[in-house]
Amino acid sequence: MEKLAGILVGMLGLTLAIFSSGAVAATECNTGPPGNPPLSGTITGGVVVNAGDFCILDGAIVSGGVRVNNGGILIVCGSVINGGFIANGAANLIFGAEEINCAGNVINGSVQITSTGPGALSPAPSIALERSTIHGSVHLTGNSGPIALASNTIAGGLFCSKNAFDLDNEGLSNVITGPVRCKFGD
User: Fold this and answer.
1) Contacts (Cβ under 8 Å, ≥6 apart) of 9
2) CB atoms closer than 10 angstroms to residue 160
């Protein structure tokens, strides 16, 4: 019995050591109104954009993924996101938009965008995913504003469900490996 208790105590200590040394909290991004410096450089532990926050990632290398919560606004230019991207209820999402001189991005992981829009940065679409390379699938579900996809390379497929608008490809082609279950508008 003492031997079993010793083993359990040892396992508990090892578990605490592993989890306490490796835990890294996500960096909250709120660069404020346009004109404030964007978040850039190497960021470990991921990035989170909370309700009411306005975040610009420019030249960032993020490990741990990016998450945008309800009401957050995110613009991503010339950045690398390792760990994927998730947004639920974002106000606006802009990736690599040529119209604002925003360089394309690399996303290593899947993209899941749900319930975004109708858009806070008029006349921009509520979701603009442009000039980016995505090493994973893209899922667009239940979004209420216009969605623009242009000049992307997507490995893993493109999936749409219950969006208010068909996708606008702005006359520029996307290269998509895997199934496409989205309708593109005129």
Assistant:
1) none
2) 19
Look at residues 144, 60, 70, 73 and name the one whose alpha carbon lies nearest to residue 107.
Answer: 60
What is the rounded CA–CA span in Å between residue 150 and residue 45? Answer: 29
Handedness of CA 35, 151, 105, 85 (dihedral sign): positive
CA 57/CA 115 separation, integer angstroms: 22
Residue in the block written with tokens 């420019």:
58
- Quote the distance between the C-alpha of residue 71 and its chain's center: 14
pTM: 0.85
Cis amide bond preceding 146, omega within 30:
no
Domain definitions of the chain by residue range = 25-181
pLDDT tens per residue across span 40-71: 999 999 999 999 999 999 999 999 999 999 99
DSSP 8-state code for residue 162: S
Residue 173, classed as helix, strand or coil, is coil
| Euclidean distance between CA atoms 55 and 27, whole angstroms | 11
Which residues of the chain register pLDDT less than 70?
Answer: 1-24, 33-35, 170-172, 186
